[in-house]
Write a structure and sequence with these properties.
By secondary structure, this protein is an alpha+beta fold. 33% of the residues lie in helices and 22% in strands. Strands 1, 2, 3, 4, 5, 6, 7, 8 and 9 form a nine-stranded mixed beta sheet that branches. Strands 10-11-16-13-14 form a five-stranded mixed beta sheet, with helices on both faces. Strands 19-20-21-25 form a four-stranded antiparallel beta sheet. The structure holds adenosine-5'-diphosphate and magnesium ion. The site of adenosine-5'-diphosphate has 21 residues, from helix 2 and helix 4.
């Protein structure tokens, strides 16, 4: 065999395999070109999910008639002025998209460059370009792609249904639209309008939130907190959903680097890390985060589709994201998402499908994670809430739960004044304009957990010696696991040591757990350690460890509370960050507005 250089048409078809995976990739490339051209309005039309026809029209700067033929040539670009791949300010830079699409389809471009007398048109079929001719066109550029993949029958076979391809195109456009709220976008499929987004004016955070709301839904806009942080020249902005607004998959996590939609493991991992404290591992937050980094700190030239990036300092990026998200979530205080009330109302009205009645959080409540039987054993022990008078001994703690209405106005407190405890489990409180139902166990568990975390961050968890050290008998490997982690557990306030092969002796416990059942706590922890990744330190699994401890230190469901105790719980929730959800992202309370309740009774 002799070696020969492949003709340009073949080279372009090979490149097309990487650049144009499916119709949506062509849509993405064309829309990116329109954005790079400074468009204020971008209109996309598809037929057959883009399989038979794609049209992208913009009102941007256009292409000069004498450059049309060049635009469809491989490695021809107007976007790299010098030769420096380290200074890329546009979405495109490789000069590969148009020639790749041309090589495998029938393509028409008509364009009128800014300031030009007229428009020009070019037609390319399977990589062979016509000469450009004058045409009629008002402003900007329209690119039409017919019969994508007709020239590559092998790829044609892998095309999915029109519906699936349309879904990918919608996703690609939505992602780009999130970065550019100032640009109007539309997408039609046949005669149907699928996307219609008006251009947003004004301040970036506000206009972006409007755009995000239009794409991710009203609920997101209502329940997202702004994120803004900067570290060593890297800047992170965006909006993050409250933990109680969570989903079964990560599909509503939109991440961008320098205006480029990316799917990056490092970034997804950082998001997971930031929410680890607030969500079960199978639940995922909704968010849109925009990372802007100096071009020297990132390599965007990793893959032809440009959806991957490489950071020079991955640790810095991760730290920035985790820190910024934690800070934002802390700022949300005790807020739980409004979807909680919607879900509750939906449950009251199962026949009503109009309300978003799908719960935004996972299944049953907190106790599931405690091994069977242990929770019951722990029931006897409760840590007192600080600043809370102990119930008079022997007195029935359930004093009817009706605090004197005189001793304060509900309007003074976001979570209201306690009115009653029902089923020994839920606290009912009246607020200025509604009703709050608190799951006392879930709420208290979270409060104890947050106290523990704060203590950890300050000067370590205070310990309390046991008068009589508790000897706990366990399986040998459970003992070994606890022994191996003894140093770390001591930092968390739990001091234990091996006691023969089949037991440990517990000498001290975290003081803020109060009078806890050390034996059942240690057994729970041993079970939990069995599931842990050996490589992770307990601090990295702090949420789980503290969660287990907190569970032992908290008010059990079933325990009666008197009015001052209930109000103390509500007041502490109000001042404790993250108290609106338990460690698994389920709400600790539900708030129903009077207006909602009136709706339930058909009064509105
Ligand atoms: P790249 O975007 O990497 O430069 P493309 O193959 O996507 O490569 O496009 C080649 C060139 O064609 C661009 O550099 C740009 O000058 C021009 N071009 C493509 N689409 C448009 C458009 N919608 N408006 C103006 N110019 C465009
Ligand atoms: Mg391009």
């Amino acid at each position: 065999m002799t070696i020969r250089v492949l003709p340009e048409i073949v080279v372009n078809r090979i490149a097309a395999g990487e650049v144009v995976e499916r119709p949506a990739s062509a849509v993405k490339e064309l829309v990116e070109n329109s954005i790079d051209a400074g468009a204020g309005r971008i209109e996309v039309a598809l037929r057959d999910g883009g399989r038979s026809f794609i049209s992208v029209a913009d009102d941007g700067g256009g292409i000069a008639g004498d450059e049309l033929a060049l635009a469809v040539r491989r490695h021809a670009t107007s976007k790299l002025a010098g030769d420096d791949l380290g200074a890329i300010a546009t979405l495109g830079f490789r000069g590969e998209a148009l020639p790749s699409i041309c090589a495998i389809s029938r393509l028409d471009i008509v364009s009128r460059a800014d300031g030009a007398d007229g428009a020009w048109r070019i037609h390319v079929e399977g990589g062979r370009a016509s000469t450009s001719r004058p045409a009629a066109h008002a402003k900007g550029t329209r690119v039409e792609v017919r019969d994508l993949f007709f020239a590559t029958p092998a790829r044609l076979k892998f095309m999915k249904t029109a519906r699936t391809e349309l879904g990918h195109a919608v996703d690609a456009i939505n992602r780009l639209a999130m970065v550019h709220p100032e640009i109007a976008f539309s997408l039609s499929e046949g005669t149907r309008t699928v996307i219609r987004l008006a251009g947003q004016q004004g301040e970036l955070f506000a206009s972006r939130l409007d755009r995000l709301g239009a794409i991710m839904g009203r609920e997101f806009a209502d329940n997202a907190i702004p994120v803004e942080a900067e570290r060593e020249g890297l800047r992170l902005t965006g909006h993050a959903g409250l933990p109680t607004l969570n989903q079964a998959n990560a599909s509503a996590q939109y991440l961008f680097v320098n205006g480029r939609p990316v799917r990056d493991k490092l970034l997804f991992g950082a998001v997971r890390g930031a929410y680890r404290d607030f969500l079960a591992s199978d639940r995922h937050p909704m968010l849109a985060l925009f990372l802007d980094v100096p071009s020297a700190a990132v390599d965007v030239n990793v893959h032809p589709a440009k959806t991957e990036v490489r950071f020079r300092d991955a640790g810095l990026v991760r730290g920035l994201i985790v820190g910024a998200l934690r800070h934002a979530l802390t700022g949300a205080g005790h807020r739980a998402s409004t979807t909680v009330a919607d879900a509750a109302l939906g449950a009251f009205r199962p026949e009503d499908t109009g309300v978003s009645s799908a719960p935004a959080y996972g299944g049953g409540h907190g106790r599931g994670r405690v091994p069977a039987g242990l929770a019951e054993r722990a029931d006897a022990f409760h840590a007192p809430l600080p600043g809370l008078q102990a119930p008079p001994s022997g007195a029935d703690a359930d004093s009817g739960g009706t605090p004197d209405a005189e001793d304060g106005s509900c309007a003074d407190y976001p979570l209201g004044l306690a009115r009653a405890q029902v089923h020994g489990t839920y606290v009912l409180a009246q607020t200025a304009d509604g009703l709050v139902i608190v799951d006392q166990h879930a709420a208290h568990e979270r409060l104890v957990y947050e106290r523990m975390k704060r203590a950890m961050e300050a000067d370590g968890v205070a310990r309390q010696g046991l008068l009589i050290p508790a000897v706990v008998e366990l399986e040998e490997d459970a003992c070994a696991r606890l022994g191996a982690r003894a140093g770390e557990l001591a930092e968390l306030g739990l001091v234990l040591e091996p006691f023969g092969p089949g037991a440990v002796v517990v000498r001290e416990v975290p003081a803020l757990l109060g009078e806890t059942d050390a034996a059942s706590l240690v057994r729970d922890l041993a079970d939990e350690l069995a599931e842990f990744d050996e490589a992770l330190s307990l601090k990295e699994r702090l949420a789980d460890v503290c969660g287990t401890m907190a569970c032992h230190g908290s008010v059990r469901a079933g325990r009666r509370l008197n009015a001052p105790e209930m109000n103390a719980l509500l007041r502490e929730m109000e001042v404790t960050p993250h108290s609106g959800q338990c460690n698994h992202g389920r709400p600790t309370y539900v708030e129903l507005k009077l207006a909602d309740i009136e709706k339930l009774f058909g009064r509105r």
